[in-house]
Amino acid sequence: MLSASTKKLLDKKNHPSSLILHLPLIILLLFSVRIDAQTSTVLEDRLCKSWGLVKIEDGTKTQNADDAQKDYRIIFNQDHTVQQGLAPDGFIPGTWTLDEAKNEVVITDKSTKVSYTMKIIKLTTDELVLQQIEDSRTLIIYYKAS
Fold first, then answer.
1. For the domain with range 43-145, which CATH number is right: 2.60.40.10, 2.40.128.280, 3.30.360.10, 3.40.720.10?
2. pTM of the model
3. N- or C-end of the chain: fewer Cβ atoms within 10 A?
């Protein structure tokens, strides 16, 4: 059984005027959480699109994308998922994270759980150049927006 003072306190907390007094604070909190969740950087915005393979440099050897390789795509999505592969053969799903301080993107294959790190050499609205940094050789991959 509740005491009269406890009932009175509960009634004040549940009173509609109490909610109205706290409404601006509630709205402010909800608005700030929504803004934080939607914030992305310029680098992320530029990265998030479909990229088509142009060429690969392996040390001193350059290989331009042939007819089969021109269909290779890597697609970075805003929700930090990635798809890569040949159209229409199919895409390998994964996730990506960005380390802006190091200018690196880490791509993780969802099925194999294998991750690899790529250094972002150049990123414009229509050009992406990545360098594979975990390999003993220097592999630079050129993409164009598609």
1. 2.40.128.280
2. 0.70
3. N
